[in-house]
Amino acid sequence: MNDLKALSHIEDKFIKLVEGADSAEQLERLRVEAFGKKGEFTALFQRLGSMNAKERPTFGKSLNQTKQKIQTLLEAKIAKVANEAEAKALSTQKADITLNLSNFKGGKLHPITAVTEEITSIFLKMGFAIATGPQIEDDFHNFSGLNIPDDHPARQMHDTFYLKDSDLLLRTHTSSVQLRYLKKHGAPCCIIAPGRVYRADSDQTHTPMFHQIEGLCLGTNYTMAHLKGCLERFIAEFFGDGFETRLRPSYFPFTEPSAELDVKQPNKGWMEVLGCGMVHPNVLKTCGINPSNIGGFAFGLGVERLAMLKYNIQDLRQFFGCNNQWLKHYGINVEQVL
Amino acid sequence: MRFSLALLKQYLATQKSPKEICQILDNGGIEVEELSIPTPPNSKGFEIAKIVTAKPIEGTKLKLCKAQSKSGIHSIVCGAANATEGMFAILATLGTRVGDITIAKRKIQGIVSEGMLCSLEELGLAEKHNAPKNNTQKDNPQKHNAQKNNAQKDDGIVSLPPNVKLEDEPFKALLESLTMFEVAITPNRGDCASVYGIAREIAAAGGGKLSMKKLRKIAKTAPPSPMKINIDSPNCSFFGAVLIKGVTNLTSPPSLQQSLAQMGMSSINAAVDITNYFSGAFCRPLHCYDANKIKDIKITEKSSSFEALDGNQYKLTQDTAVESDGKIAALAGVIAMFNKAAVARASRKLNLHTESSYRFERGVDHNEALDMLHEAALQIAHHCGGEVHSPVYEGKTKLPPRRIKLGPKLVERVGGVKLTSSQISQMLQKSGSLIHSHNTLDKTQGILNVEVPSYRHDIREPTVLVSEVLRLRGLDAIKSQPFNHPSQNLDAFTRLEYIAKRAFANRSLQEIVTWSFVPTLFANKAGDKAEGKTEGKTGGDNVEIANPINKEQMAFLRSNLVLNLLEQEADEMFELGPVWLDPSLEQRHIASIRLSTNQNTSQNTLYEAKQDVLHCLEVLGAAPTQLAQTSRALYHPGLSGEFRQNKKAVAYFGMVHPKFQRAANVSKPAFCAEILLDELSLNASLKKEPFQQLKFQPVERDFAFVVSEQVSAGELVDVLLTANQLITAVNVFDVYRGKPLSQNEKSLALKVTIQPQHKTLTSEEIEQITTELVTAATKVKAKLRNE
């Protein structure tokens, strides 16, 4: 019984001592006093061996429980004191977080690249593949094969650049790729063709070079309803929801019927976005396709125009130069996923 | 094309507002580019007044006018030159606020004036003469002919049309004459290239009722004409003429002048004004000739010079001309029923676009040519006097009708809209077509036999009729079909651009886009062709444009990107785009430019440019096999290099040759990197081998070798790499020149990496490799620096 009493005393003593200690050194000393080779608990364990079989289990159990308890208290206190010491040490170390690493100059992509990629990715998702064609074209691919004969008034509106001493010209639209592709691969097809185009015109709203993306989708059962569905989906993905669209009759020699697609932002007026229509039977015949079996739609959109609408760009001419401020403002970081 | 609301209302009875009219036109495919509606002042105190008398006040330019309005007769002193008896004007009565002043009774030159006859400016309605509008519509010649659209002359008081009533709302007629529409007529809709045509279009869409006075005919009793007409040209289907003898050609009456002004045309004289009115109002180009200079008329194909009414000489090559006495009197359709294609060709060839050619090109209505000639001749005689003779003409007065078959099936197949045969029939009839009875087979399939109006030149095929039906129905009727196809991947050709651009952007370069043209000062100077990529081709580097809009900047297509970047004085920028050495050889290049901040660091900038190339080639998977000095004329001969694949240069870097920098006025040394993207062979495998952790730590040893200036670092590195097969890397980290080295020497400090393969190397073994290194270095006569 005395042994149990003594154990209880030791327990009380160490609880108090642990509570009272406030340095790592003190706690280390207490650990030695309790559990070191000559420690008080160690002594009690040594006595256990000399006890009789009757006393031993009871006392042994209490001794173990108490040892566990004090040990836990001691370890917790050691951790606490260590944490406090570290916190104190860290509190003296302070960086001025308002400072920056000097000029990181990541290059940015041009908005024409960004918007072209954005439009391309939407159409890829919709099942269009990319086709290309040359920028120096002949009359056939740019005009006559697209149902724009020599005497067509539409030619006037195209302000064509011609090459010197040659019948070749700079393509006035990406529609020339329609013929290039169809003559090579035939129908059915579903392609877009992005690229530079040229018109001999230069003022506030016209530049002699700009970028277009042509679309062409031919198959056995496409109607204007598919054209509408396709472009509506494109507008929704490109501009986001909340934009209304409408088709308005128009005229292009290589589509019949032809239309313009307008979009309307909430609380704003209608804006003309692109031209489109059902591929003209004459164009199909030119490419050796029978218009009574195969038909479909085509569209052509201006990259700069869409960029201006989406990214609030005012001056068309700024696209083509190296105004650093403008480029930094409208440029897109390469990490951006469009 | 421009026209006023007042003019439109001469041919269209409508209650629609100008905005509603725009809506109708827009929905029908006639794009309204601009609608300008002036804002009138508060109408309180203003009245319509008829000038009963206008007597000059002696010794002044003033007139004393008696003006009758709904409130009585007013005595007004007026300074306007155009104040004449019988004219209707706008009167500001006493107490009326006009701009900043209030009209009060006052004495002018001792005479009491009881009000003011107002000018446009005083009413705040004068057109502001702004700079020309931004969006010039190319197909619209009227823009170029007349910028001003005012129905009223700038000076003088407002003159109202003679049909106004004194009780009318004072500004109504004036506002209608000042409300201007500007529409873009697509090339297929020649029938809308007149005010009447627009009215017809609006009426067909249910926007009002078309109204047209019956055209008069020259009396059968008119004297016969002595003129003869001979058509000797396939491009003229009809030519008619009326001789009017004894004409006194005066200025036009104000109402006609105003009507012309409301179409953006200017007044010349009564006879010409009347023909111009027919052109603008009815799309009926007509022409007045001096009868003294014209005898018989021959329409023929001409190849000679010709002086037109505008005083300019035009050279004709097989173009249709109106000839009299062997002299050319007019160029058919351009400056005077012609084939629209022939007119379009001639007008484009001569770069001569007129009101008349604009209309002939788009197609005018053959069938009413003679009727219009009658009416116009009578109007000229009415205004100018003279004796009207019987018309003479050659050609068919009416063309055979055009009939096209159309059924609901085609409408559905193209438009995706289900319509019944009778719906289609109704719509087409409303827009002027006639529906004829059909044969039994057609009837069972609902196919209509449509006769299109003679003025619709564009409708020649069933699909155009489908367009017409859809247009009349409204494109809103098309219900969109979902468009879902399996998605596609980016192709390799485009992917190359995506990667190359990102590689350059990651080198802290900003992407720019420049013209595909090279400034003329650089044309044929870069020697790109001499680089051997187009063997056998002759001529300069640059493809030349026949009709540049800017001779300094845009007369040649570029053959490289470097000079464009230099000319822009771009710094830390890049471009990816096309270049041409020949019209049939379009290639994509990517190029960067960096300006060196000062001469001392310019070598560093050279290596930045080299790194631009290396980084891009690496990410593209194009391993260069050879590096060499370049002989390309674009670069400084010593400070430049090229990378080759299969002995062909695929990339360049270095300082741009000082002569180009001087020409471009760039003062800082410019360093460029260029990759010929389409020449690359993407040979490096991007496939990864399984990873193997090296078991032994690599050993690194630093050396300094002294070597002659004639030996490049690369040559030394190459021989060191072959010294022992355990050497995996040799990197130069410093170059030293100066004492104690001699003039022609340099010291290269380099770090050699030795990678043990099977066991850790002993110090003896490392010593052995070092000896091998020193021995190898002697191949390029390099010595260890400390020896």
Briefly say what this structure is.
Chain A is α+β, with helices and mostly antiparallel strands and 338 residues long. Chain A has 12 helices and 11 strands. The model of chain A has no long low-confidence stretch (mean pLDDT 91).
Task: Explain what the structure shows.
Chain A contains 12 helices and 11 strands. Chain A is an alpha+beta fold. Chain A has a 7-stranded mixed beta sheet with strand order 2-5-6-10-9-8-7, with helices on both faces. In chain A, strands 1-11 form a two-stranded antiparallel sheet. In chain A, strand 8 and strand 9 form a beta hairpin. The model of chain A has no long low-confidence stretch (mean pLDDT 91). With 787 residues, chain B is α+β, with helices and mostly antiparallel strands. Chain B has a 7-stranded mixed beta sheet. Classes of the chains: A alpha+beta (338), B alpha+beta (787). At the A-B interface, strand 1, helix 5, strand 2, helix 7 and strand 5 of A face helix 8, helix 11, helix 14, helix 15 and strand 28 of B.
Beginning-to-end CA distance, first to last residue of chain B: 91 Å
Secondary structure tally: strands of chain B = 40
> Level of helix content of chain B?
25-40%
Number of helices of chain B: 20
Instruction: Using the alpha-carbon principal axes, give the shape of chain B.
Output: elongated
Which radius of gyration of chain B do the C-alpha atoms yield? 41 Å
Q: Residue ranges of chain A: pLDDT <50 for 5 or more in a row?
A: none
Please trace the helix and strand order of chain A, writing H or E for each element: HHHHEHEEHHEHEEHEEEHEHHE
What's the helical proportion of residues of chain A? 40-55%
Described by the principal axes of the CA atoms, the overall outline of chain A is elongated
Using only CA atoms, what is the Rg of chain A?
Answer: 41 Å
- Tally of alpha and pi helices of chain A: 12
- Approximate strand percentage of chain A: 15-25%
Count of strand segments of chain A: 11
User: Strand content of the residues of chain B, in percent?
Assistant: 25-35%
Q: What's the arrangement of strands in the largest beta sheet of chain B?
A: 28-31-32-36-35-34-33
- Assembly of the depicted chains: heterodimer
Q: Report the structural category of chain B.
A: alpha+beta
The largest β sheet of chain A comes out as:
7 strands, mixed
Main pleated-sheet profile of chain B: 7 strands, mixed
Biggest interface: chains and residue counts?
A-B, 84 and 93 residues
